[in-house]
């Protein structure tokens, strides 16, 4: 991730009372980096983990922007290779995108969760002609409890989506809208009955009970 001295705040957008998106400009790569902080009320860290972790079955159910997510390779107990496929946007003007990311999931001493990710090349994932292969620069996603029985999610997103043909004004709103939609979908998922599997292990984040591991 670029040195903090190379980053400058470009804009701040309060999407709602519980979601803020920061746009940062990197003077070294000339790329835009997004940071967002948001809260999800009346839920636990484990609840959010089960909705987001790629080894859970819930993410494709509630994330309206996600076409598919799959584990390509397990390199260790908490390091996975993940393929994300994002749906097309703007009535198909922007085609589907996919990323092949090396992801490390960890649990901190205070119970908070973190995932760091970066794109790699993997022999099991050749390019698909109809899908544009995007590139994730070093990024992170964090989940931690708040003091009012909720959860804070925070992410630093730095990616090359290969959208050179898309007008600048569209680009300026595309990522923030996508981030806001992700947060909105996540909150709404708690308003619906979901078949949560509490004992299912999620590498690096949640571990099966001893009876399940036997």
Describe the secondary structure blueprint for this structure.
Elements: E1 7-16, E2 19-26, E3 32-40, H1 45-52, H2 59-62, E4 66-74, E5 79-86, E6 97-107, E7 113-119, E8 132-133, E9 135-136, E10 139-145, E11 151-157, E12 159-160, H3 168-189, H4 210-213
Parallel strand pairs: 6-8
Antiparallel strand pairs: 1-2, 2-3, 3-11, 4-5, 5-6, 6-7, 7-10, 9-12, 10-11
Q: How does this model look, in words?
A:
It is a single chain. 18% of the residues lie in helices and 38% in strands. The N and C termini lie far apart (40 Å). It is of the alpha+beta class. The protein contains four helices and twelve strands, in the order E-E-E-H-H-E-E-E-E-E-E-E-E-E-H-H. The chain has a single domain, classed as START domain (Alpha-D-Glucose-1,6-Bisphosphate, Chain A, domain 4), CATH 3.30.530.20. 21% of the residues are buried.
């Amino acid at each position: 991730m670029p040195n903090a001295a190379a980053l400058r705040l470009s804009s701040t957008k309060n999407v709602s009372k519980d979601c803020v998106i920061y746009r940062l400009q990197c003077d070294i790569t000339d790329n835009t980096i997004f940071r967002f902080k948001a809260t999800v009320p009346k839920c636990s860290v484990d609840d959010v983990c089960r909705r987001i972790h790629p080894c859970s079955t819930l993410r494709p159910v509630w994330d309206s922007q996600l076409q598919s997510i799959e584990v390509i390779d397990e390199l260790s107990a908490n390091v996975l290779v993940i393929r994300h496929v994002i749906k097309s946007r703007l009535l198909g003007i922007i085609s589907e995108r996919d990323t092949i990311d090396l992801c490390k999931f960890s649990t901190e001493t205070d119970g908070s969760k973190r995932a760091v990710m970066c794109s790699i090349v993997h022999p099991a994932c050749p390019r698909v002609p109809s899908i544009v292969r995007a590139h994730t620069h070093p990024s992170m996603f964090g989940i931690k409890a708040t003091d009012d029985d909720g959860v804070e999610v925070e992410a630093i997103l730095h990616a090359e989506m290969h959208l050179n043909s898309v007008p600048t004004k569209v680009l300026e709103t595309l990522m923030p809208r996508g981030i806001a939609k992700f947060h909105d979908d996540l909150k709404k998922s708690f308003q619906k009955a979901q078949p949560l599997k509490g004992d299912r292990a999620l590498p690096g984040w949640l571990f099966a009970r001893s009876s399940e591991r036997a």
